[in-house]
Specification:
Layout lengths: L1 H14 L7 H14 L1 H20 L4 H5 L2 H15 L9 H14 L10
Length: about 120
């Protein structure tokens, strides 16, 4: 069934961040996000499902998507090309960039208006 497949894929998607393709690990990670923020949980689930659905609609291999291979290969190839000459780690850079973006997005910003 598609419902159970989507649930399995969503939960495994959360656990793949830690290289553990497991429904139970994904459920524990999702519970941890829920304990911190219901809003973040909703966004995490929507982002996970939306990413899967969009790539599947574009004709990507569902099994490869489920294993996270498509994004991993593309990011690794691109980041190796860009970051290798300056000696930065390409494997952890996507995680670091995503963390910086989330930290920056959560900071209060000054209203930048011309007050003339």
């Amino acid at each position: 069934r598609f419902d159970s497949f989507l649930l399995k894929t969503t939960l495994e998607g959360f656990s793949e961040v830690f290289i553990i393709p497991s429904i139970w690990a994904g459920l524990l990670i999702l519970i941890g996000i829920l304990i911190d923020s219901r809003k973040a949980t909703v966004y995490a689930i929507l982002g996970n499902v939306l990413g899967f659905v969009i790539v599947a609609m574009l004709g990507g291999n569902v099994n490869n998507i489920n294993q996270g291979l498509l994004l991993t290969v593309l990011l690794n190839l691109g980041l190796n090309t860009i970051l290798e000459p300056i000696g930065l780690p390409s494997v952890t850079m996507p995680f670091i960039l995503a963390t910086w973006i989330m930290l920056f997005a959560g900071r209060p910003h000054r209203n930048i208006e011309n007050k003339n």
